[in-house]
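Q: Predict the assembly, please.
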Amino acid sequence: MRFLFKTDYAQDTRLFPFGGTRRFWAGLALYAAILVALAHYAPVALNATHWLGVAIVYAVLFGAVLLRQNADGEGGNAAFWYGLLGVGALSAPFVLDLYFLSQITFVYVYAIAGVGLILLLGMCGQISLGHAAFMACGAYTAGLLQAQGFDLLVTLPAAILLSAALGVVIGLPALRMTGIYLAFATYAFAFIVEEVLARWDGLTGGNMGFVLSDPSILGYSFDSEQKMYYLAMALFVLTLLAGLNIRRSSTGRAFMAIRDSETAAEAMGVNLAVYKTTAFAISAGMAGLAGAVYAHLLFFISPEGFTIFLSINLLVLAVIGGLASMHGAVFGAAFIVVLPQLISLTKDSLPPVVGQLPGLESGIFGLVIVLFVIFEPMGIHGRWMKIKTYFQLFPLYKRGTFKRQKSYMVSEKNR
Amino acid sequence: MTLLEVENLAVHFGGIKAVDGVSFGVDKGEIFTIIGPNGAGKSTIFNLVSRIYEPTSGRIRFEGKDITQVPPHRVAGLGIARTFQNIELFDMATVLDNMMLGRHAHRRTGMLSHLFFGPRTRAEELAHRRKVEEVIDFLDLQHYRDQMIANLPYGVRKVVELGRALCTEPKILLLDEPSSGLNVEETEDMSFWISDIKNILGITVVMVEHDMNLVNEVSDRVLALNYGRVIATGTPAEVQAHPEVIRAYLGGDETEAA
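A: Predicted assembly structure:
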């Protein structure tokens, strides 16, 4: 928390809550280099325990450096924790088994789409039930271009741009609609896209779908789970940085202005039409990127993978993760990856009457959303903030700390 | 020199003539107040000038240029800033973000460069930040810089909204009831700030106001409005003494009025 005096305006435009980001990134890059060197040139084959040892030794050294430099800095020990997280994420492919690794890879992919949805829904206040269509667009673009022999350097930008263009088209109704009407319009559009994919056999393979091969960049093939993990992680970090950059620039502020008061936004010079469609385009582009990586992870795509249920899953991701912050994308993605696994794990130990119920998963998802909306509208991130604040303020935390005052009257007449 | 000129302005909502052929001119460097009973059309004039409403007929000229056809999001860039009667702040953003939005019309970098936040974007952000800090100092808002609007008391919100309008570096500032909902002390502060805005920052102010003390203290000229028509213009004292104005506020014999 900052108080009355400040020394430096750069604090307010900072990307991370902590200073010394150069050292932070350099430390992570060094660790990546060490991992590459060990993987290629180690005299003996290293097993998971060895890698864990390497990770722990490096984490201790790196953590000490970060703690020391940040001793009198702001943002508490954020650099330290993010540093540990980075070391852990980089070590994961060497330490975890393939099942967990592929689950984390899916978390990254959903989080990419989640960042886009949080930009659109959390920052700009525009709802979309059409994000499955953007993911489908990205997935099919990447898949079809790959079949033509292009590598990721072409297919990914193409997937992003085409999805963004589709986003502009879907965003156009947003200029005239809000709330539930917009949700319906986007849903209708997503349905059209799904139908087109199923009917246009010649191009998409129809309901049979089609199979993708390993993606590659300039001849380097991502032919293992580990390589796909790093690819997804890198793309996620880039998406997250782009999202955070939007957040701290005038574009992000314009989005927030549109969310909170369109009248005032316009009076401040925000062109509503341009910014609403931009929000849709950026969000759709990110969903398209997620779709492309998703397709490569599954090796097989068909219209069935991109139904309304995927759109709702993404919405669940954003709402349960927390719309107020980009952290929500990761929390939400982890949630929608882990919950189905948990359900299928516990399914067998339940009595068959309950365990074999059709629609058990959707039912539990629905229940969780309802509970979150009632008891924790700020999502997992909001809950996390409360727990953190509780310990920071202990023993002074009061139950009302996060309670907001009733809002004052906002005029409806100019809307 | 006339900065803002309104000529025969009218807007009809169905059969209701909210503003019915109003003309006036605001000179550079003055504080011009519009008074009138409820429903007289004061706020409607503001909404017409800031282009939220489409006028049925008439002309609005700013610095000699006709702005009757300018889209509403361009108005701020021309140098016309406004506040709202019921406070239209961005509730879920901090004071700082709200004020930075006031700088929106002055941005020079494109949206694509914001994705990467390169050196030019950073330099621009810092320059905006510096401007915002000047306004924060001017209005004594340092305490609230990082607080969310939703957590602020009403009086502070009023000041933040004034600050947000100042951040656009306007040539003319439209204040819609700056003192409504404020206590006596806050109203006094507001009156000092309005005078300072004119005297120190050199910004022309047009305001709609009910509090006659405030009107008398700061206004150079007053325009009285009733049923969408101008009934008097002049110094505060002249307008208050005008028989039509007294009749509009206190009521009177209808036949006598006609």
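The radius of gyration of chain B is 19 Å. The first strand of chain B starts at residue 2 and ends at 13.
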